[in-house]
Amino acid sequence: MLRFVYVVLLRIFSIIYFVPKMSYYANHPEKYSPEERYALAQDVIMRVTKTARIKTEYFGKENIPDKNGYIMYSNHQGKYDALGIFTGHDKPCSVLMDKRRSEMFIAKQFIDLIDGQRIEKNNPIQQIHTLNVIAENVKEGKNYLIFPEGGYGKKNDNSMEKFKYGCFTSAVKAKCTILPVAILDSYKPFGQNSLRKVYTKVVYLPAIPYEEYAHMNASELSAYVQEKIREEIERREKTA
Question: Cα(157)–Cα(74) distance, rounded to whole angstroms?
Answer without folding.
Answer: 15
